TrEMBL record:
GO biological process: rhamnose catabolic process
GO CC term (a single one): cytoplasm
Superkingdom: Bacteria
Top enzyme class: isomerase
Membrane-spanning intervals of the chain: none
Pfam families, sorted: rhaM
Keywords tagged on the record: Carbohydrate metabolism, Cytoplasm, Isomerase, Rhamnose metabolism
GO molecular function, one term: L-rhamnose mutarotase activity
Stated name of the protein: L-rhamnose mutarotase
UniProt-listed InterPro entries: Dimeric_a/b-barrel, L-rhamnose_mutarotase, Rham/fucose_mutarotase
E.C. numbers: 5.1.3.32
Length: 104
């Protein structure tokens, strides 16, 4: 398993709706992520900066990068675009983070 982390930017005042939308995550999106090898996926919020910090495990040899072209993911991005900083294709602006410490 590979563990990856990245950060995204939530728009001010959107914490509640972000949490609600993720509490009601579409079953087909969850299935797609799992089938693509994504597991143990968590997103944290730094409320002082509205920065979202995500961590997920990916099956060895698999990458979730190809998921961006899937229609379910594109619909989710469109659904979330009003409350997050996004790129022109509605994908969230995200920045990969480098792991600098790990304690098993």
């Amino acid at each position: 398993m590979a563990k990856i982390a990245f950060k995204m930017q939530l728009k001010p005042g959107c914490k509640g709706i972000y949490e609600q939308r993720h509490a009601e995550i579409w079953p087909e999106l969850k299935t797609l992520l799992k089938e693509a090898g994504v597991s143990d996926y968590s997103i944290f919020l730094d409320e002082s900066t509205n920065i979202l910090f995500a961590v997920q495990e990916q099956s060895s040899g698999q990458s979730s990068q190809h998921l961006g072209s899937h229609p379910i993911v594109q619909r989710w991005w469109e659904y979330m675009a009003d409350i997050m900083e996004t790129n022109p294709d509605n994908s969230p602006v995200s920045q990969p983070l480098k792991q600098v410490f790990y304690m098993p």
